[in-house]
Amino acid sequence: MKHNTPLSPLPLSHLSDVQRRVLSVAQLRAHGVSAARTSTQCRPGGPWQLLLPGVYVLHPGPPTSDELLHGTLLFAGRPTVPAQSSQEGSAGREGKGDEDTPLYGEAMITGLAALALHRFSSAPPLLSLDRIDVLVPRTRRLRSTGCARVVRAHALPRPQEITGVPVAPVPRALADAVAQLADINAVRRLLTEAVRGGHCEPTAVVKELNRARLLSRPHVMDAVDSLLAEGRALAEDRLYDLVRTYGLPDPVWNVDLRLPGGPHLGGVDAYWPEQAVAVGLDTRAPRHGEDALWSEYARKREHLERLGITVVHLTPGKLRESPEQQATVVRTAMMASADRDPAAYVVVLPR
Q1: In total, how many domains does the chain have?
Q2: Region (Disordered) spans which residues (predicted)?
Q3: Residue 108 placed within a domain
Q4: What tens-digit pLDDT sequence spans the chain (351 residues)?
Q5: Residue 311's domain spans which residues?
């Protein structure tokens, strides 16, 4: 039995193997396959099958994970309004993958399927998923159906390409996955792996969860608290490594600063008393009701600097991506202390 109907001479060389096995109705039409012929091929026991509305798999049997991904993107990525004036124009645009009109439009894989593509060990395998989440602009008039669950966004992130598939970045994919999960353990495993695996920083994850209005869910908040604690611990380890690796003098770690007999000035992660230089790790996350916390954070920094103490704020992302540069920033602040007026005397206490 033939599994594929011969197509017209219109070249397919620009398509990958999986893109030749899964085609949209417009692509089939561009290759000379009529709607009647397509319907015949998709009859029970026939060599083709309808995967999603307007998307066909050109072989019998279960589709592969790659075919499911490609078919979902073809279904969701079709232009909202056809931009062609003829069937030939359609072939030129959708069949040939014009650079100005990508084959998948603006659609990208998100949610658990995206995390599987990002190689999360805590994400289920693609073929075990009942649905594949696909992210599209909020203006798309498209409904979830079959294996495709449509997720809309006011502003689309820039996708990452993994094995030729446009995939949402990890923070956005996590938010879309968490939106469908009620199991706190599953949520915690995904968030923890995102940080431990070096996929992204906790603040980026919390920002997306906040944007998706998921922080009001108790099981998500519990998982986020664990995530932030995990992120701070990793950032502290990177700060220790930075001091050792780049030969900075040993500071006193995790201390509170006070004026003698006076008020508490605040805690810092590292402090060099001789140079009056303090390092604070900025691990704040954009959560509801943190305006007051940020105001207090800024007030503490201003107070310390008025006393002649230089405060260097480092973010977990900068420590991970450019440790040498951050070490230079700290060393420069220490060298500059010789040109400053002496700092006020402060009491250093364990935190």
Answers
A1: 2
A2: 80-100
A3: yes
A4: 444 444 544 444 445 577 778 999 988 988 888 999 999 999 999 999 999 999 999 999 999 999 999 999 999 987 433 344 334 443 333 444 444 446 788 999 999 999 999 999 999 999 999 999 999 999 988 999 999 999 999 999 999 999 989 999 999 999 999 999 999 999 999 999 998 888 988 888 999 999 999 999 999 998 998 888 888 888 999 999 999 999 999 999 999 999 998 788 888 999 999 999 999 988 765 554 455 555 666 777 788 888 899 999 898 888 988 999 999 999 999 999 888 888 888 999 988
A5: 247-350
The verdict on 81 and 157 lying in the same domain is yes
Q: What is the CATH number of the domain that holds 322?
A: 3.40.960
Could you tell me if 337 and 277 are in contact, meaning their C-beta atoms sit under 8 angstroms apart? Answer: yes
Look up the pTM and report it. Answer: 0.74
Of 130, 122, 124, the C-alpha closest to 199 is 122
Per-residue 3-state assignment (H helix, E strand, C coil) for 215-276: CCCHHHHHHHHHHHHHHHHHHHHHHHHHHHHCCCCCCEEEEEEECCCCCEEEEEEEEECCCC
Cβ atoms within 10 A of the Cβ of 19, count?
A: 19
